[in-house]
Design goal:
Layout (H helix, E strand, L loop, with lengths): L3 H4 L2 E5 L3 E7 L2 E6 L4 E6 L4 E4 L8 H6 L6 E4 L5 H4 L7 E5 L16 E5 L4 E3 L4 E6 L8 E5 L4 E5 L6 E3 L8 H14 L6 E4 L11 H16 L8 E2 L11 E5 L2 E5 L17
Parallel strand pairs: 5-6, 7-8, 12-14, 13-17
Antiparallel strand pairs: 1-2, 2-3, 3-4, 4-5, 9-10, 10-11, 11-12, 15-16, 16-17
Helix pairs in contact: 4-5
The structure holds zinc ion (2 copies).
One zinc ion binds next to loops.
């Protein structure tokens, strides 16, 4: 067996829409030209595709260039830049709390939906991937944990430098802070690398210090004690808060809705732990 270092960072495929780079042994990142990200993890018997990007042609065929093992397609959360190509696949897995977002995709999904929940484990053959529910960015955001490598695949749960918590259907800052704390605990117990959902912006995995910064910033927003620089308006228009604000602490930035710091929408799902 070769070490992950030998095979690290080798681009193995490219077309007009995306590149595929091997980051570790049996782990690849797909980076699209619109800066979305997917990951492929391969076990001895099965493989997993994490997220599907916004709009790529023949994604299923592209993935087959890397692995022809039976594929679990797991979506970290139902946003168009992560679930945009679910239509290429007959079976998909995501957390039920994001069902409310599925109507916002470009067409109805006609395949089979399998809901995952906190603690579920996918067995890929000598490789187990565990689901952890991390609401905040969306109510059904999940991360996928590989204790064998210490890797966490986080989608947008903790952002890619900046996490968006200002989006409908709003979670409270308390909920997001709890997710940060849960993630922090995992990083004291076997998880060392967080591979985010927009890898092209970062080109590396986050370590524990990033999660610590996020955790502290979420607590400060909840208590209204943000440090300098003071929060300022966030101006990129997306569906969500009327007047979103953004706040930065060390390496972490959170965009949030001041109206939903204390209370998310009715039906908000708290993290299981
Ligand atoms: Zn998202
Ligand atoms: Zn995203």
């Amino acid at each position: 067996m070769y070490s992950s270092a030998i095979k690290a960072q080798k681009q193995v495929f490219a077309n007009d829409e995306l590149t595929i780079t091997q980051l570790e042994d049996k782990m690849w990142v797909i980076e699209t030209v619109d800066n979305t990200t997917m990951y492929i993890i391969e076990g001895d018997e099965k493989a997993m595709l994490i997220d599907t990007g916004t709009d790529c042609h023949n994604l299923q065929e592209v993935v087959k260039k890397i692995t022809d093992k039976p594929l679990y397609v797991v979506i970290t959360h139902i946003h168009v830049d992560h679930a945009g190509n679910i239509f290429d696949f007959e079976d998909i897995y995501f957390h039920q709390a994001d069902e409310v977002l599925i109507d916002r995709l470009r067409e109805p999904y006609k395949g089979r939906i399998h809901y995952v929940k906190d603690g579920d484990v996918f067995d890929l053959g000598n490789k187990e991937i565990e689901v952890k529910h991390m609401p905040g960015h969306t109510p059904g955001s999940i991360v996928l944990l590989d204790y064998q490598t210490g890797n966490c695949y986080s989608g947008d749960a903790f952002g890619s430098g900046q996490v968006w918590c200002q989006l409908w259907p709003f979670s409270s800052m308390h909920t997001y802070e709890k997710s940060c704390r849960t993630m922090h605990k995992l990083m004291n117990n076997g998880i060392t690398k967080v591979y985010c959902g927009h890898y092209p912006h970062i080109k590396r995995a986050f370590d524990k210090s990033y999660i610590e910064d996020m955790s502290q910033l979420a607590a400060m927003i909840r208590k209204g004690t943000q440090p300098e620089p003071k929060p300022h308006p966030f101006i990129i228009p997306v569906i969500g808060a009327a007047k979103p604000m953004m706040s930065t602490y060390k390496t972490a930035t959170i965009v949030y809705d001041p109206e939903h710091v204390k209370k998310g929408l009715k039906g908000e799902v708290s993290p299981g732990n």
